[in-house]
Amino acid sequence: MITGVILAGGLNRRMGGKPKALLPVQGEPLLVRQLKEMSKICKEIIVVSNEPEILHPHILGVSGLNVQCIRDHYVQKGPLSGMHAASLEAREPLLWVVGCDMPFISAKAAWVMGELCQEANRDAVIPSLEGRIHPLHGVYTKLIGSEAELLLKQEEYRLMGLLDHIDWQSVEKDFFEKHEISTHFATNVNTPDDYEEMLVNLS
Hints:
With 203 residues, the protein is α/β, with parallel strands linked by helices. Helix content is 36%, strand content 20%. The protein is built from eight helices and ten strands. It has helices at 30-38, 52-60, 79-89, 107-119, 144-153, 159-163, 173-178, 192-202, and strands spanning 2-7, 24-25, 28-29, 44-48, 67-70, 94-99, 124-129, 132-133, 138-141, 168-171. The radius of gyration is 16 Å and the shape is globular. It starts with a strand and ends with a helix.
């Protein structure tokens, strides 16, 4: 039902150029941690990166997964370009899209959002937590790829701009609590300080 999509195409400026996808978390690269969680519900996982040669050895180190690493068609145009590229390759009707800097992604959260997306016949289901929308860790139909391409051709690169053009539904904390899911899944690691704080919280 769901293709997992990890967006790893950023320049990592706020992390001093160090690839966030390879930051060690509890003894393994963040990317590997994400691949293992996605594999719980995804038969197919797509990693979008413009430096696949850096990530490939780590992907190959996780046995038994169907993972492909692809490049953006619109290079360095942000998450929207990664979602567009993934939508062209995905075989499943839904995309579970996350950023490569999210250590606590939740397969259970993605599954219940995917069910809601299909039941409600929406283009996407996206968490809205503490007043903030989290389009990364959202579930989208692969059909949003055509809308993303239109925006990219118009040089409109904002991911939030995509939401203005699709029929999406937000889900809040009580939705996840009903399913006994912690909303910790939305945490991301943008800066060295974020990373250090996350490690302290895990210790």
